[in-house]
Amino acid sequence: MVEEKDCVSLAVESPIQIFVGTQQEQMLAVKVLEYSIKKYASMAVTVTPLFTAIHQAGINIPEPQNPKLKPKTPFSFQRFAIPALKNYHGRAIYLDSDMQVFQDIKELWLLPFNGAELLSVYEPKDSGRPPQFSVMVINCEQLQWNVTELVQELERGRWTYEQFILEMAPAEKIAAVIPTKWNDLEHYTAGKTALTHYTDIPTQPWLTTQNNLGWLWCQEMLNAIQEGFISEKFVREEVAKGWVRPSLIYQLKHQIIDPRELPASIFYKDKLEFVPPHAMKNINNMINNQRIPQFWQKNMIKIYALARFLINKL
After folding, report:
1. Is the pLDDT of residue 305 over 80?
2. CA separation for the pair 17, 164 (Å, rounded)
3. Does residue 79 sit in helix, strand or coil?
4. Which helix (H) or strand (E) holds 94?
5. Fewer Cβ within 10 Å of end Cβ, the chain: N or C?
6. Helices 232-240 and 214-226, axial angle in degrees (round to 10)
7. Contacts of 7 by beta carbon, 8 Å cutoff, 6+ apart
């Protein structure tokens, strides 16, 4: 079992409080992320899925009427509720669910704000990318955000959607000081990477066997199960719900770390029978928004899976 650690001065807020932007169908990824965080942490840590905390707090996040302003994911606006969830006290760390940690998260927790309201990941000038906000340290005392009011201001035109989400415009004082090793996109270098971000949804290791770093995430999942942090029953339940790929069960049974080493029959079974949640939502939107004959509605998922399989064979 991952030990809870609390070797910290009384002057430092404890435990480290991490809020994760996620949906119900991503909870296996969240649990592996939580395991990886606590594995390396030298302080006590709490990891809270934002959708759970927001529901329990009774916070309402309205959805804009303007289609151009609607959140791209169900959790896009969740991060703006964090200061309220902390009663506007202390600090908090925000992470996306599709991540894995390899170093002590205390490094982020102890970063000084120096007057900033929010700390983001630093991007070198030659990276071609703006500062990243999928990893943030939030000054909950300075950010007096009310997520309902912020969304209303968004709809009134105070910000564009891109400014609101991609630039975190509601925060006026942002310091891009978090080292890039804390948001290594689809990359891992042993001894250097502090956090790998599986940001490409179609190739996330719990959804497909074809991620080059799939072995890295699967090894952590197997470790978490071996230590009792995650149960095999939980994994099987997530598979049964259609939220993660069925081949994970075969990997568990045969202790295969690298999913690319799975038998071809298991690989093709995934391709033919499993439709990832994000693709399922696209199919449902097509059904809801168009007049599709009932026969095609009933078989659309199978048709989609077969088409995807044939495309991958080309």
Report:
1. no
2. 24
3. helix
4. strand 91-96
5. C
6. 130
7. 42, 43
pLDDT tens digits, 125-142: 777 777 789 999 999 999
pTM value is 0.87
Tell me the one-letter amino acid at 299: N
DSSP secondary structure string for all residues of 167-234: S-TT-S-EEEEE-GGGGEET---TTT-SEEE---GGG-TTT-S--TTHHHHHHHHHHHHHTTSS-HHH
Sign for the pseudo-dihedral over CA of 8, 12, 15, 17: negative
Q: How many CA atoms lie within 13 A of 235 on its CB side?
A: 23
Q: Euclidean distance between the first and final Cα of the chain, in Å?
A: 45
Per the listing, tokens 């309902």 go with 148
The span from the CA of 247 to the CA of 206, in Å, is 9
Helices (H) and strands (E) in the chain, counts: 12, 9
Q: How many CB atoms lie within 10 A of CB 190?
A: 7
Instruction: List the Cα angle 54/60/65 in 5-degree steps.
Output: 130
Q: Which residues are CB-neighbours of 103 under 8 A, at least 6 positions away?
A: 40, 181, 194, 195
Backbone φ and ψ of 174, nearest 5°: -110, 135
Give residue 85's identity as a one-letter amino acid code: L
pLDDT tens readout for residues 174-228: 999 999 999 999 999 999 999 999 999 899 999 999 999 999 999 999 999 999 9
Q: Residues 67, 39: contact at Cβ < 8 Å?
A: no
Distance in angstroms (rounded) separating the CA atoms of residues 81 and 84? 6
| Contact (CB, 8 A) for 273 and 305 | yes
